[in-house]
Each structure stands twice: as C-alpha cells, then as structure tokens.
C-alpha cells in the first residue's frame, strides 16, 4: 500500500486534471456505476465536526472512504484535514492512503469550474471572493480555468487573511488585478461571478446587492445550521443548480431554510452536475442571476482519488 502526502499530490495533480476526472465520474454516475452512502457528519462540539464519506465505482472497481476533520478553532494546523483510503474491488486489497485536504479543495474547485462554465456569462471577467480560507483558493483556480478573469475582489472578516490570500494568488501565478476590500457589498456589486466559501451560520452578504447577470457559487456551508447565503439571493436566482440533490436536501442550510419558508420548492432546483456537465450553456440571457450550491458527495472524492492513483501508477 502506498502513502501519499498533500505535497506529493500537488506536485503532479492540478485543477485541470481534477476537472477531467470529475467529468468522468459523472459519466459513471449516469451509467448507474456509483454506489454510495449519504455522508455522515458527527458533531464534536458546537464548532468542530467529523465527516465520513464512503463510495464505490463498479466501473473502475474502486472503493474509497474519506474521513475529514473540521476544526475552526485550529491556529497552527489547517481548519480542514482529511484522509482517503483507496481499496481495489478485484480482491479487496487496500491500495493507498492519501492525505485529502488538498484533494477535497481541488475536487470542489473542479465542480465549481464545471458549474461556472455552464451558468456564468461568457464574458464574465470580475470574480468576487467572500471568505479567503483554504477552500477558497482552488475555487479561484477553478473559475480561472473556464472564464477570462481579469479582476479579483477579495473580502474576509479578518482583513489580514484576505491580504495573505492575495499574496498567495500572486505567488501562484494568477494573472489578474487583485484587490482587498473592507465592505462585502463592494464585492457583490462589482462581481460577475461570486465565490462564497464560508462556514457561517448567518448570511454573509445581502442578496439585494446582486447585479443582474451575476453567477453565485456557494461552496462553504455544509450543515443544516449553516446559511452563508440569504433568502433574497435564493429568491432572486432565475436558475438554481446543485452538485448532488440528495446531499443538498440533507445538508444545504440555505436551501433547506428557503424551502421551509416557502421561498422556493425543491422542484425549483433545475438539476445537478450530473444532469448538465456535458450539455449546452444553460444561461437564458445575460440578465439572469444563477446560483450553484455545493455540499459535496463521496463520488467526487472517488473521482480525484482515482485520478491520483492512475497518475502515480504510470
């Protein structure tokens, strides 16, 4: 059995690889080759959680189980840490264990790229980022893969973290004008695309500030108690798509609250990634507000874990 660290994976496996592999796993899903259990979220205390995600692909004959710890109280360690165990289904042999913090961020960025490609305006060039924690970085990389990003506007409640994030983007080679603002409304009013990646229990921006034609990616909240987007944002969305509807109905606090409040019905969700990843551009016109909500599912982790296994076996 091989063991791979985040650093070893990062040297070889990038956002473009993840986008390719997520698209492949969506085809497996379409062909009923995915067997998974709903993600189990166990609370440690009021802030910290443990997540467990098992999944099997009968097409690739591969099984994974991912364990993730989310500890917002961490100061010297990452908030999110993970590990994936990969098992071959020919003989049940455990083939690899790999750190999953980077892969979790990367597969989420790949999913955002696929959704943004189908929903954002083709000329969208201003990216707004709300929340500059670890998850946000690969979200930027994902959007930059599918749209001509010329300007990035950053907001974080702790401004110093937003400045650090800007430096990190520039060091990585992201080519855009990057600025940090102190008022979240400046992000919302400027952006063509908004990436919202927080674990907030209350909305972090005012949906009334959204401009016509904006596309919103909500990827931070993953529990019923979390609500980083408000009802106004959901009500104004002309089209709503999700990563996995079953998971969303159990975990997406914003949409669950909006349904309970009568703002929308589950039938108003147009579809999930598997429904449209290889179809045409979905935006009706340049004035529509579109929304993509993501909470994650095991087969997306299987996608990138499988991609890494193939790459390290070459």
From TrEMBL:
**Organism domain of life:** Bacteria
Q: Which family does it belong to?
A: Belongs to the ornithine cyclodeaminase/mu-crystallin family.
One Pfam family name from the record?
OCD_Mu_crystall
Q: Where are the transmembrane segments?
A: none
This protein is called what? Ornithine cyclodeaminase
Gene3D superfamilies the record matches: NAD(P)-binding Rossmann-like Domain, ornithine cyclodeaminase, domain 1
UniProt xrefs under InterPro entries: NAD(P)-bd_dom_sf, ODC_Mu_crystall, ODC_N
Per the UniProt entry, what are the Gene Ontology biological process annotations, in alphabetical order? Answer: carboxylic acid metabolic process
Q: Which GO terms describe its cellular component?
A: cytoplasm
List the Gene Ontology MF annotations in alphabetical order.
Answer: oxidoreductase activity
